[in-house]
Amino acid sequence: MKQSILVTGGAGFIGSHCCVELLDHNFNVIVLDNLSNSSIKVLDRIKKITGKELHFIQGDIRDKVLLDQVFTQHHIDAVIHFAGLKAVGESMQVPLTYFDNNISGSITLLQAMQQHRIGHLVFSSSATVYGENYPSPLHEDLPTAQPTNNYGYSKLAVEQILQATAKANDLWSFALLRYFNPIGAHQSGLIGEDPNGIPNNLLPYVTQTAMGKREVLSIYGHDYPTQDGTGVRDFIHVVDLAHAHVKALQYLFTHKPSVGIWNIGTGTGYSVLEVVKRFEQVNQLKLNYQFVERRAGDVAVCFADANKAKQDLGFVAEHNLDDMLRDVWHWQSQNPDGYA
Ligand code: NAD
Ligand code: UFG
Known about the structure:
The chain is an alpha/beta fold. The protein has helices spanning 13-24, 42-50, 64-73, 88-93, 95-115, 150-168, 202-211, 238-255, 272-283, 307-313, 321-334; strands at residues 4-8, 28-33, 55-58, 78-81, 120-126, 173-179, 181-183, 217-220, 232-233, 235-237, 259-264, 270-271, 289-292, 301-302. A 7-stranded parallel sheet has the order 3-2-1-4-5-6-11, with helices on both faces. A 3-stranded mixed sheet has the order 12-9-14. The chain has a two-stranded parallel ribbon with strand order 7-10.
């Protein structure tokens, strides 16, 4: 019998790519999303790519009554939990909104799962839980550190809640996936990242500048102790990241660890300037950019030790930087206004 996966936040950037991967791996997919940062149009696109239907429920993970209905009406084998707010700057302005959505939302989801005896969950964590002070590569054994922003704090808090919850009850089997920098888009050009307003992250800013929607890309910092003075990050193709979720699910089903923690990155760092230059080269265009002051809260270098995911999950990222930059431009140029 097919296994059924509840995907919270499945209409979002990473969630939509994960739905494609799950459908391609023959899972039944039930998406619960309040569409606060995504478009209903993504559902048709997923169907176009996979030729398969998923079940969509528009709603909020903090809605206890709705969650009870979802778990009562659907047979669910595991949950992949993407739903959350993710804008670092905004999290400093409205901390309680972030804590309510990301932390309380996760607790409400866990309560419903417990009530319905569903114990497998994959959680979207972030490299932000390592804090700012460790040299890369970052290994999962490093103690976590206090994040400097409220978004990061919400991720660390949920990680800690999951670890404490798992200790108390052998129902649970949790995968904590610490993502590095997800970029790119599905090769079809049908789904991709569609940020609201002015993008915070590098790649959406790059593509919107290339489109002429933004005048100039500001590169934050040219004086970091790196090969060219710009920040270094571990960029991972969102399709690889989606694949890692299927691997993690399979691991939970076969090994049933109480808690497993895995970095999901490539293990290679590229500088911001390298990314900009490769983007120009791969896509045969010129990008308007300027160097400006460092951005507060940024670290110089952040990349993963990716060995644990390889050993335990058999996960290795397959797409290289050029693939990521080609696919992200394909998506943006095919969809100049995203899903609008
Ligand atoms: P996204 O905003 O595109 O997707 C999140 C989805 O969750 C959206 O569709 C949104 O509508 C939905 N959502 C938000 N709050 C909800 C709620 N209370 N109930 C139901 N649905 C809700 O973000 P993404 O980039 O796809 O990120 C997915 C997850 O991965 C998030 O938890 C994010 O914090 C985490 N993460 C992202 C990155 C990154 O760089 N994109 C890095 C590390 C971790
Ligand atoms: N950058 C620019 N110009 C821009 C945007 C970004 O130069 O317009 C630079 C940043 O200074 C940084 C690099 O590009 O050096 C990557 O920045 P992003 O904002 O794309 O990503 P971050 O590494 O800051 O953040 C990401 C995720 C967060 C997560 C964090 C740590 O977006 O969710 O990694 O894991 F918390």
